[in-house]
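quick one before i forget lol
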Amino acid sequence: GIVAKGLEGRDYLVGGGFTVAAAYLFWWLTLASRVGINTSTHAGIEAYKARCAAVPGVRAALDHEVAQSAR
């Protein structure tokens, strides 16, 4: 798809690192999977999601979200 093509050869969406644009795309991709949009067939998208999820601030936010939903 369009997103997979845009990520080809890149670690993040724009620039050489994690940016607001990268965070927003990660958030969108996370929401997409929650509503049944399957991205698992796109290895580049899955790798992107893993890279973003490994960013310490993102990891902390995800951990917080899990903790909140467990209440």
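fyi The chain is about 65% helix and 0% strand.
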